[in-house]
């Protein structure tokens, strides 16, 4: 599962599984969130509120890039890195 971004101890990874809509995994310590890209929402998992807020803020800023990364992975291409939350 390629890493597409890292910030504040949060690692963002993406793995394409054909029957599922565009999503990514946000991993922080022993917590993991699965976040849908369109619409932008937490599908599964739990993390501290500040981590959830940062992940959702980052995803809103980079939603188009996340969709591009999903499309690249769908065609067996390497996704481009996405800037971290500033």
> Which range does the strand content fall in?
25-35%
Strand order of the largest sheet: 1-2-3-4-5
Low-confidence spans: pLDDT under 50, at least 5 residues? none
Structural class: alpha+beta
The H/E string reads EEEEEHH
- What is the count of β-strands? 5
Give the number of domains: 1
Number of helices: 2
The Cα radius of gyration reads 12 Å
Distance between the termini: 24 Å
Taking the sheet with the most strands, its summary is: 5 strands, antiparallel
Shape: globular
Compute the average pLDDT.
94
Any chance you could write out the topology, listing elements then pairs?
Blueprint (H helix, E strand, L loop, with lengths): L2 E5 L2 E4 L9 E6 L2 E6 L4 E6 L2 H13 L1 H12 L12
Antiparallel strand pairs: 1-2, 2-3, 3-4, 4-5
Q: What attributes characterize this protein structure?
A:
single chain; 86 residues; alpha+beta; five-stranded antiparallel β-sheet; 2 helices; 5 strands
Structure report:
By secondary structure, the protein is of the alpha+beta class. The protein has one domain. It is built from 2 helices and 5 strands; from the N terminus they run E-E-E-E-E-H-H. It has helices at 49-61, 63-74, and strands spanning 3-7, 10-13, 23-28, 31-36, 41-46. It has a 5-stranded antiparallel β-sheet with strand order 1-2-3-4-5. A hairpin with a 2-residue loop joins strand 3 (23-28) and strand 4. It starts with a strand and ends in a 12-residue tail after the last helix. The model has no long low-confidence stretch (mean pLDDT 94).
């Amino acid at each position: 599962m390629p890493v597409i971004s890292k910030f504040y101890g949060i690692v963002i990874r993406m793995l394409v599984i054909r029957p599922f809509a565009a999503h990514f995994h946000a991993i922080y310590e022993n917590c993991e969130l699965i976040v849908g890209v369109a619409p932008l929402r937490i599908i599964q998992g739990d993390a501290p509120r500040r981590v959830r807020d940062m992940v959702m803020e980052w995803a809103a800023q980079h939603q188009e890039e996340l969709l591009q990364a999903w499309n690249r992975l769908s065609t067996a291409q390497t996704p481009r890195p996405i800037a971290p939350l500033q």
